[in-house]
Amino acid sequence: MNSPVFVEYTAVTPQPWKNRRGITRNLFDDSDRAGQWSWRISIAEITGTQPYSRYPGVRRGQVALGPGAVELTINGEIIELPVEGTIVFDGEEEVSATPHSEGFLDLNVMVARARWTPHVSIVHDPTVQVPEDGFWAVVALEDSCTFGDHRFARLDALLLTSGAHSGVGRFVLARITPAG
Predict the structure, then answer these.
(1) How many other CB atoms are there within 10 angstroms of residue 136's CB atom?
(2) Residues 43 and 69 in one domain
(3) CATH for 85
(4) Residues 6 and 150: beta-carbon distance below 8 Å
(5) Residue 133 vs residues 3, 116, 163: alpha-carbon distances, Å
(6) What's the Cα-to-Cα distance from 123 to each of 4, 46, 127, rounded to whole Å?
(7) pLDDT tens track for 135-163
(8) For residue 45, what are the β-bridge partners?
(9) Are 128 and 154 found together in one domain?
(10) What sign does the CA torsion over 109, 144, 146, 28 have?
(11) How far is 4 from 13, CA to CA, in rounded Å?
């Protein structure tokens, strides 16, 4: 990858979840021609209580984008995830989500656990040094964010290349690093 890849959220076509119970907008992945991937970054819309699709061998990082919080039930344990709250769990786990508000969105970073490790965090006015191994992306949490030469609306995203980058505003920083 020679230059950063910018994605306007509103231009991404919604796709059904693996279990067909919700929709997602895929921002970035490393899928091959057969649609197989080892990592992927997406934003899902959750309406009402929904079971998550199971992904054996996958580790998932999630950020609650709101509006409002979401109640996750993971293997029977209830976890309240506030807006901009983060969590990481395995794709084999039995998970369901109950959003507190209509129009709830979450950002997902899913990786093949044997190859990658997902990291999700909220950053303000970030300056980052992206290594050559792995993949890093930023997703704007508010309108009028900038990152390098790119101007963002809320939920627009940028897949970063290796090297130094800086931005102004609040972002989700999604990092995918080699496992181990």
Answers:
(1) 21
(2) yes
(3) 2.60.120.10
(4) yes
(5) 15, 10, 11
(6) 19, 24, 9
(7) 999 999 999 999 988 999 999 999 998 99
(8) 23, 105
(9) yes
(10) positive
(11) 21
Domain count, the chain: 2
Which of 112, 130, 165 terminates a domain? The answer is: 112
- Residue type at position 128: V
* 23 domain residue, yes or no: yes
Does 32 share its domain with 104?
A: yes
Please state, as a whole number, how many other Cβ atoms lie within 10 Å of the Cβ of residue 82.
12
Whether residue 40 is found in the same domain as residue 107:
yes
pTM (whole model) above 0.85: yes
In order, the DSSP letters of 37-64 are -SEEEEEEEE-SSEEPPP-TTEEEEEEE
Structure confidence by residue, pLDDT tens digits, 93-112: 999 999 999 999 999 999 99
Query: Are 98 and 81 part of one and the same domain?
Result: yes
Q: Is there a contact between 27 and 135 (Cβ–Cβ < 8 Å)?
A: no
Length, in residues, of the chain: 180
**Nearest one of 47, 4, 45 to 28, comparing CA atoms:** 4
| Residue 16 and residue 102 in one domain | yes
Let me know: does 174 contact 116? Beta carbons within 8 Å: no
Indicate if the pLDDT at residue 46 is higher than 70. Answer: yes
Task: Tell me if 109 sits within 8 A of 135, measured CB to CB.
Answer: no
- Is-contact 179 117, C-beta < 8 A? yes
Task: Give the model's confidence band at 2: pLDDT under 50 very low, under 70 low, under 90 confident, else very high.
Answer: low
